[in-house]
Amino acid sequence: MTRRKLALAAPLFAIGAAAIALAIGASAGSAAKRAAFKAAWIYVGPHNDGGWSQAHDAGRLYVQKALGGDVETTFKENIPEGPQVSQVIDSLVRDGNKIIFATSFGFQSAMAAAAEKYPDVKFEMATGTIQKKNMAEYFGAGEDAIYLSGMAAGAATKKGVIGYVVPFAIPEVIRHANAFALGAQATHPGVKVRLIWTNSWFAPDKEKKAAENLHSAGADVIGQNVDSPAAGQFAESAGIPWVGYDSDAKKFAPKSWLTAAVYNWGPYYLRRTKAAMNGTWKTGFYYGNLKDKFVGLAPYGPKVSAKTKTAIAAKKAALVSGKFYEFAGPLHDQSGRLRVPKGKRLTVKDLYAMNWLVKGVIGSAKG
Q1: Dihedral pair phi/psi, residue 147, rounded to 5°
Q2: 10 Å Cβ neighbour count for 325?
Q3: How far apart are CA 142 and CA 289, in angstroms?
Q4: Which of 54, 93, 217, 226 has the most beta carbons within 10 angstroms of its beta carbon?
Q5: How far apart are the first and last CA of the chain?
Q6: Confidence of residue 34 (pLDDT cuts 50, 70, 90)
Q7: Is residue 15 over pLDDT 90?
Q8: Torsion of Cα atoms, 99 then 102 then 108 then 111, to 10°
Q9: Distance of alpha carbon 205 from alpha carbon 211, whole angstroms
Q10: CB of 160 within 8 A of CB of 316?
């Protein structure tokens, strides 16, 4: 090749190299763009409430850690159950989120409307009942783990009266209250479980006041189906045992802590986010259980005896194997009416419609 041809080739080579560099840069940019898959969560309380919302946020962090730079997660907290939810969803969609997890029953109507409005976005509704082509429903057999936590409460009471702080009179909470009472009756036959409704998922002041009133009414153990550790903090100050819910909240009442039913949201969130990313996501209904470790018990506190732990372990094994089910007949309601005859087991569909309280529960199923 002559010097002239070399001279002509040099700029062509430079142009070619630049084009390759641009192509590589564009490819890297495209990869980075693809990596920024956005997933969002909506919480009814603060992400660090020590209970329900914190457990969901732990699931979000599980996804972020597992997928690293391949995903960008975000959350909206303290969102009231009402018109504001729709505005939050609109904002999340505008921000480019392709899958949205809503974690409170009262968000369901807004989520269903959004699923119609945004057909290219995947919607996941915790504790709800509505499914659409791009909207799935998920929850778990919290009642099984709550039954086991009730056993710990029943073993701890000396007076035979347990207080239970509850939020709203909906089937979810009613079946949980029933499971708690049945578990308590398994370790303390004849025990009474007294309810106080707060009409709020997260209201520390109301929850503390409810616990105080329950204690004044004779309860020497406190349990809960609400989101903050306020009831447990009161129990600690009063020197009585406490059963939490949603999260391991032992640090809030280390002396009073017994245990709590907990949910392991992370694996489900990871599975569904990956499916949305790779195009395999499909709608459906997921109901996790003790066997797949979606639900379980938090570590025990110092007040739970070895005998009680053994009894709970045996009952848990029976629940996992199917040899035992807390909602198998015969079961009677508060008035003594037979609700579940011998030989019958309530289905998940039955549980999602439950509107009555079992014998031994003091309080109204209407809130």
Answers
A1: -55, -45
A2: 15
A3: 8
A4: 226
A5: 93
A6: low
A7: no
A8: -30
A9: 10
A10: no
> Is residue 193 within 8 Å of 253, Cβ to Cβ?
no
Token pair of 295 as six digits: 């639900």
What is the distance between the alpha carbons of residues 286 and 293, in angstroms, rounded to a whole number? 13
Count other Cβ atoms within 10 Å, centred on residue 29: 10
Instruction: Enter the DSSP assignment of 196.
Output: E
3-state secondary structure of 59: helix
**Cβ(250)–Cβ(233) below 8 Å:** no
Contact 178, 359 (CB under 8 A): no
Closest CA to 289 of 261, 308, 331, 310: 261
User: Up-side HSE of residue 55: CA atoms within 13 Å toward CB?
Assistant: 26
Strand, helix or coil at 79?
coil
Task: Report the distance separating Cα 192 and Cα 154, nearest Å.
Answer: 9
Dihedral sign of CA atoms 176, 178, 182, 185 in order: positive
Question: Is 62:254 a contact under the CB 8 Å cutoff?
Answer: no
Give me the mean pLDDT over the 141-165 stretch: 98
Cβ neighbors of 263 (< 8 A, separation 6 or more) are: 55, 140, 142, 246, 288, 294, 295
Cα separation, 192 vs 153, whole angstroms: 11
Counting DSSP H helices and E strands in the chain, the numbers are 11, 15
Q: Is the pLDDT higher at 3 or at 80?
A: 80
- pTM, two decimal places: 0.89
- Separation of alpha carbons 193 and 150, rounded Å: 10
Cβ 165 vs Cβ 51: under 8 Å: no
* pLDDT over 90 at 155, yes or no: yes
Mean pLDDT of 257-281: 98
Contacts of residue 357, defined as CB under 8 A and 6 or more positions apart, other chains included, come to 174, 177, 178, 181, 195, 333, 334, 363, 365
The kind and range of the H/E element at 140 are strand 135-140
